[in-house]
Write a structure and sequence with these properties.
Layout: H1 17-41, H2 48-58, H3 65-70, H4 74-101, H5 103-122, H6 129-158, H7 166-201, E1 260-264, E2 270-272, H8 274-279, E3 283-290, E4 301-310, H9 311-318, E5 326-331, E6 336-340, H10 341-345, E7 352-357, E8 360-361, E9 371-373, E10 387-393, E11 416-421, E12 427-428, E13 431-440, E14 446-453, E15 459-460, E16 462-463, E17 473-481, E18 484-494, E19 516-522
Parallel strand pairs: 1-10, 12-19
Antiparallel strand pairs: 1-2, 3-4, 4-7, 5-6, 5-10, 7-8, 7-9, 11-13, 13-17, 14-15, 14-18, 16-17, 18-19
Helix pairs in contact: 1-4, 1-6, 1-7, 2-4, 2-5, 4-5, 5-6, 6-7
Bound molecules: the ligand Nc1nc2c(c(=O)[nH]1)N[C@H]1C(S)=C(S)[C@@H](COP(=O)(O)O)O[C@H]1N2 and molybdenum atom.
Molybdenum atom binds next to loops.
């Protein structure tokens, strides 16, 4: 209601929307920056960007398979977090415009923001309520104060007494807003790096490596094909191992409070500290793990030497009841994966609660302090990282994280083979040329690999000596390459004698099928 002019001065003209939007943007940036800084400084305070990003992931509708595949990778996580930030700032700019003539509504908007941050922070299992509440209160206050202050500054330059120096007032307002946004960005970045480092510092004994009481024997002679440039190494270095998980920030459980709990349909539930876990007999073995979302020819697969406690031993100790048919691994970040109990009771299969990877303590990205490694099953139904809890239940009694989202409940790794050299679309010189790659069918093993050039017959490749049925093999075919454009295909036969199908399927719901095929030009 703007009625008559009661003051001796005319009412200040309404703020241009650009000025109000800039004020809103700067205030939003200040609030976000302060919140990220608090998240870095105050242990247990949730980061708004991470907490809201996690909530977005958690709110995926059932069947949102493709979105789910797409947010897996690390770059995609950064994009998700950045998108949350950009959307938040855009809304903040909008609230600035609203605040120009309806300050009450803008305040409600800011409070809603605060509540969303609080709600997201409270459902983050890695954050604590009180520090998160402090972060919310401080950042909402910062938003209100900075917005009010910048709007007042913008108005002052429009007031009649400032009319003589509009350029000065305008520059001062824009400069102040940009300075606020810049300081906010800086403190946000500081907060983020503190958050990452703070969580790292929470690992007091991160350097400990247990003595494997049964160390994996070295790979047999002939396990690694020598001298083929570009071929995947037999053992994937930790730094090159694929990483797939739903965590926007790597969970870094504190070892002094971390426990592994084994419970559910058991007669003797128990909990172990990290030291107690490491004091149990440690078994070491090579196992190839793979992601169900790996496309044909993709690299979401790797082979590592894992050491840890046999799952069988933990289950024996817990005295599993006969009704139990499913093992569920639950992570500190609430991720869950379930697999048939029967699968891990098989005598020739050793599932581990792994604590090392290639002789090093599990890297944070790969599940420190402990993770499950189950030969033969895709990671999403078995390989719980940052493991907190093993629950025995029935097959019908529980669905792991990805199952309601449309992925298969039972997911053995499909037989696959990949061409590493030559690279797709490569130009190669005519004459003897290596064609090489890897093939896997954990834990049925690989019997044979064959290569097909154009429409010729399938020809056998040389296959490396397998470390075990649970690991991949390398293969090599020496091709006398004639000039021209050629198609190269590969297929494997698993240990049961089943030939890898050429019928292509998408990764969802239970893994990609089909032959890897590349085109090359021989000159
Ligand atoms: N806690 C947790 N564990 C997890 C996941 C996850 O999102 N959270 N992803 C699983 C999936 S889908 C795969 S393929 C493997 C990947 O293990 P890596 O990142 O060590 O390669 O981890 C599994 N364990
Ligand atoms: Mo996966």
């Amino acid at each position: 209601m703007r009625t008559a002019v009661q003051t001796p001065y005319p009412a200040p003209p309404p703020l241009p929307w650009q000025a109000a939007a800039l004020a809103g943007l700067a205030a939003g940036a200040a609030a976000l920056g302060v919140a990220e800084l608090i998240a870095g400084l105050l242990p247990g305070a949730a980061s708004p960007l991470i907490a809201i990003g996690d909530t977005v992931i958690a709110l995926q509708p059932p069947g949102a398979k493709q979105f789910v595949v797409d947010i897996f990778g690390e770059a995609d996580k950064a994009i998700l977090v950045a998108t949350v930030g950009v959307v938040a700032l855009a809304v903040a700019a909008g609230l600035g415009v609203v605040a120009g003539d309806r300050p009450g509504l803008a305040r409600i908007g800011i409070a809603t923001f605060g509540l969303a941050y609080l709600g997201a922070g409270l459902r983050d299992p890695l954050s604590d309520a009180l520090p998160t509440l402090i972060g919310v209160v401080v950042s909402v206050s910062v938003a209100l104060v900075v917005l009010g202050w910048l709007l007042a500054l913008a108005r002052r330059r429009r007031a009649p007494e400032a009319a003589q120096m509009p350029a000065w007032g305008r520059r001062r307002f824009i400069g102040t807003s940009l300075a606020v946004a810049g300081v906010a960005l800086g403190s946000g970045l500081v907060g983020r790096s503190l958050l990452e480092r703070g969580r790292e510092a929470a690992l007091p004994q991160a350097g400990r490596i247990p003595d494997p009481s049964s160390t994996a024997p070295p790979p047999p002679a002939g396990a690694e094909l020598e001298g083929v440039e570009g071929l995947s190494p037999l053992v994937t270095p930790n730094s090159e191992f694929y990483r797939i998980d739903t965590a926007l920030i790597v969970p870094r459980p504190r070892l002094d409070t971390w426990r592994l709990r084994v419970h559910g349909l058991v007669d003797a539930p128990f909990e172990l500290t990290y030291d107690e876990l490491l004091a149990m007999p440690i078994h070491e073995q090579y196992v190839t793990i793979a992601c169900v979302s790996n496309e044909v020819g993709g690299n979401l697969v790797g082979n590592a030497r894992w050491a840890g406690v046999r799952l069988r031993e933990l289950l024996d100790r817990a005295q599993v009841r006969t009704e139990a048919t499913q093992v569920v691994g639950r992570a500190v970040d609430r991720f869950t994966a379930g697999f048939p109990l029967e699968w891990v009771l098989a005598a020739d299969r050793e599932a581990l609660v792994a604590v090392t990877m290639n002789g090093e303590p599990l890297p944070a990205d790969h599940g420190f302090p402990a993770r499950l490694i189950v030969p033969g099953l895709y990671g999403y139904v078995s390989a719980t990282k940052w493991l907190a809890d093993i629950e025995l239940t029935t097959w019908e009694g529980f669905d792991g994280y990805w199952v309601p989202l449309g992925w298969a409940k039972e997911a053995p790794i499909l037989t696959q083979s990949r061409i590493d050299v030559p690279r797709p679309s490569a130009r190669v010189a005519a004459g003897r040329t290596p064609i090489a790659g890897v093939a896997w069918a954990p834990d049925r093993g690989i019997n044979a690999v064959e290569v097909r050039i154009d429409d010729d017959d399938w020809q056998p490749a040389t296959v490396s000596t397998p470390i075990s049925d649970a690991t991949w093999v390398q293969w090599l075919f020496t091709w006398d390459a004639p000039p021209g454009a050629h198609t190269i295909r590969v297929r494997a036969t698993d240990g049961l004698g089943d030939v890898q199908t050429d019928q292509r399927t998408r990764p969802d719901p239970d893994g990609a099928r089909g032959h890897h095929q590349i085109e090359v030009t021989v000159t």
